[in-house]
C-alpha cells in the first residue's frame, strides 16, 4: 500500500519508496519496556492531554478505546489502549464469511487427543502468491476460543506481502516466532520488524498486515486464547533476569491515509474460529496517536538472561520462561513460552542434556536455528515436536550415549535456538498435521541398552 506513513513525533523519519521495506525495517524507532503505559503521536499535538476523551479530540481525530482485558480486571493485569484515529473503527460495512483455508481453531475435534510422541518436518515451499495470512497452517491446540481458554500452534510460510489486506484476531493474541525470513508488521500502533531470533506479539483485536523482508518467510505462531502473556514472577531469582522488561520494544505511532475510497482495504477478522471479511474504503491503520498498555511488541530472544545450575543437576526448563499466560490456577500456565538460548553448561556429576521425563504439561517444541541439545538428528529448523501430557520422552539414544560418557568440562551450548510452547492442556492435532507426520519418531529411543548390573 502506498499509504503515507508519516513521520513520528519522536523525530524518526520514515519517508520511503514503496517496496523499500528492508530500509524501513532497519530504521525503525521503538519504545522500551514491557507492559508500560506507553504513548506516541505521529503528529505533534494529536494526543489529548489530561483526559482520554475530550469533547473534540485534537486535530479532528476520533478517540477510541481498545480493551484487551475486562474493564474490571486487577490494575496490575489490566490491558487497554486509547487510539486517536482518522476514522472510528465502527465505520465499516458488514462482515461476511470467507473460507478458513488451513487455519483451525479450538475446540479441536478433527481427531481424538493422541498420547504418541509426534514430530514434523518443516512446511514445504508455499504456492506462489501466498501471503502471511494465507500461509497460516494450524498444527493443533487445546481449549476453546469462545471460552477464551487454551491455545493453538500454527506454522506459516509465505512468499508475498499482504497487499491491501489487514488481519485482526478476536480469538487471541498472536506470538509470532520467525524461523526463516524477516517480517515487517504494519499495525494500528505503528511498525515493527521481527527477524529470526526475535519474536513479535500482536495483541488480541489489533489490526495489522505483514510484509516480507526476504523472499520467503517461515515460522511459528502461538495463538493464545487465554490471559495476555506477561513476564513470569522471578521469586528467589531476584529483581532482574530471564527476559528483562526493558528489552521489549513497542512501536511508535505511524499511520496510513490514502483518502476515503482511494484504495479499498480488505479487513479479515478471525472470530470464534472463522474468518470474516469486509472491504473498507480506507486503511484501518489510520491511528495518528495512541497511549496505553495493550500494544504490540518485539523481543530479541538473544537478550534472554539465561539462568542455570552452577553446581549439579539439570534445572527444569521453567527457568527459561520468557512469557507466561496464567490460567485460573496459580502456577499452572495456560501456556508458557520458553526459549533454549545459548548458555554454558557446567554441572558437575550431571547428565547435562534434558533428562528423561513424563510431564503433566504438554510440550510443543520448535527450532529457530541450528540443533537442540536433546536431539542428535531429525529435529529440524522449521520443524516441530509434540510431547503430550505424560508422554515419555527426553534425549534420543545418540544424545544419551554421548552425554553419559562426556568429559564434564565447562561446555558452551551455542549452536542452536529452540523454543517450547508448554501448556496445561493436551494438544490435539488437526487432520492436516496428522497427515504430515515424520515417520517412526519412536525409533529415536530404540536401542537404549540395558546397563543394569544389580
Ligand atoms: O522435552 C524437552 O526437550 C523440553 C525440556 C527441556 C528440559 O531441559 C527439561 C525438560 C523438558 O521437558
Ligand atoms: Fe519435555
Automatic annotation (TrEMBL):
Residues 1-21 are annotated as: Disordered. Gene3D superfamilies: Jelly Rolls. Homogentisate binds at residue 393. Pathway: Amino-acid degradation; L-phenylalanine degradation; acetoacetate and fumarate from L-phenylalanine: step 4/6. It comes from the Bacteria. It catalyses: homogentisate + O2 = 4-maleylacetoacetate + H(+). Keywords: Dioxygenase, Iron, Metal-binding, Oxidoreductase, Phenylalanine catabolism, Tyrosine catabolism. Hexamer; dimer of trimers. Involved in the catabolism of homogentisate (2,5-dihydroxyphenylacetate or 2,5-OH-PhAc), a central intermediate in the degradation of phenylalanine and tyrosine. Catalyzes the oxidative ring cleavage of the aromatic ring of homogentisate to yield maleylacetoacetate. NCBIfam families: hmgA (TIGR01015). Belongs to the homogentisate dioxygenase family. This is Homogentisate 1,2-dioxygenase. It comes from Streptomyces kunmingensis. The lineage of its organism: Bacteria, Bacillati, Actinomycetota, Actinomycetes, Kitasatosporales. The gene is hmgA.
Amino acid at each position: 500500500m502506498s499509504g503515507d506513513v508519516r513521520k513520528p513525533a519522536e523525530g524518526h523519519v520514515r519517508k520511503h519508496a514503496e517496496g523499500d521495506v528492508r530500509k524501513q525495517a532497519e530504521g525503525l524507532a521503538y519504545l522500551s519496556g514491557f507492559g508500560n503505559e506507553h504513548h506516541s503521536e505521529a503528529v505533534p499535538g494529536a494526543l489529548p492531554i489530561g483526559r482520554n476523551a475530550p469533547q473534540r479530540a485534537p486535530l479532528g481525530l476520533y478517540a477510541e478505546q481498545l480493551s484487551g482485558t475486562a474493564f474490571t480486571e486487577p490494575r496490575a493485569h489490566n490491558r487497554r489502549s486509547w487510539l486517536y484515529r482518522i476514522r472510528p473503527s465502527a465505520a465499516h460495512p458488514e462482515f461476511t464469511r470467507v473460507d478458513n483455508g488451513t487455519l483451525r481453531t479450538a475446540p479441536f475435534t478433527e481427531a481424538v487427543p493422541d498420547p504418541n510422541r509426534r514430530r514434523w518436518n518443516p512446511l514445504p515451499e508455499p504456492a506462489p502468491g501466498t501471503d502471511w495470512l494465507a500461509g497460516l497452517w494450524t498444527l493443533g491446540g487445546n481449549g476453546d476460543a469462545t471460552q477464551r481458554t487454551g491455545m493453538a500452534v500454527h506454522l506459516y510460510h509465505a512468499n508475498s506481502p499482504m497487499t491491501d489486506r489487514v488481519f485482526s484476531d478476536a480469538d487471541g493474541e498472536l506470538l509470532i516466532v520467525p524461523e526463516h525470513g524477516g517480517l515487517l508488521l504494519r499495525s494500528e500502533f505503528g511498525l515493527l520488524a521481527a527477524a529470526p531470533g526475535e519474536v513479535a506479539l500482536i495483541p488480541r483485536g489489533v489490526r495489522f498486515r505483514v510484509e516480507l523482508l526476504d523472499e520467503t518467510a517461515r515460522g511459528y505462531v502461538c495463538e493464545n486464547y487465554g490471559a495476555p502473556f506477561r513476564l513470569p514472577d522471578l521469586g528467589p531469582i531476584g529483581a532482574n533476569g530471564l527476559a528483562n522488561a526493558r528489552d521489549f520494544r513497542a512501536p511508535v505511532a505511524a499511520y496510513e491515509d490514502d483518502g476515503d475510497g482511494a484504495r479499498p482495504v480488505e479487513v479479515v477478522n478471525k472470530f470464534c474460529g472463522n474468518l470474516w471479511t469486509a472491504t473498507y474504503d480506507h486503511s484501518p491503520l489510520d491511528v495518528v496517536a495512541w497511549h496505553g498498555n495493550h500494544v504490540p511488541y518485539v523481543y530479541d530472544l538473544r537478550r534472554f538472561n539465561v539462568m542455570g545450575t552452577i553446581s549439579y543437576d539439570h534445572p527444569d526448563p521453567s527457568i527459561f520462561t520468557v512469557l507466561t499466560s496464567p490460567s485460573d490456577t496459580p502456577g499452572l500456565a495456560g501456556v508458557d513460552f520458553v526459549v533454549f538460548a545459548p548458555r554454558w553448561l557446567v554441572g558437575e556429576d550431571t547428565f547435562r542434556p534434558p533428562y528423561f521425563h513424563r510431564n503433566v504439561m504438554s510440550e510443543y517444541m520448535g527450532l529457530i536455528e541450528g540443533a537442540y541439545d536433546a536431539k542428535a538428528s531429525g529435529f529440524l529448523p522449521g520443524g516441530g515436536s509434540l510431547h503430550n501430557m505424560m508422554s515419555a520422552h527426553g534425549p534420543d539414544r545418540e544424545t544419551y550415549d554421548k552425554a553419559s560418557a562426556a568429559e564434564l568440562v565447562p561446555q558452551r551450548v551455542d549452536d542452536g535456538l529452540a523454543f517450547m510452547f508448554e501448556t496445561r492442556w493436551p494438544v490435539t492435532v488437526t487432520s492436516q498435521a496428522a497427515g504430515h507426520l515424520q515417520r517412526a519418531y519412536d525409533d529415536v529411543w530404540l536401542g537404549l541398552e540395558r546397563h543394569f548390573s544389580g
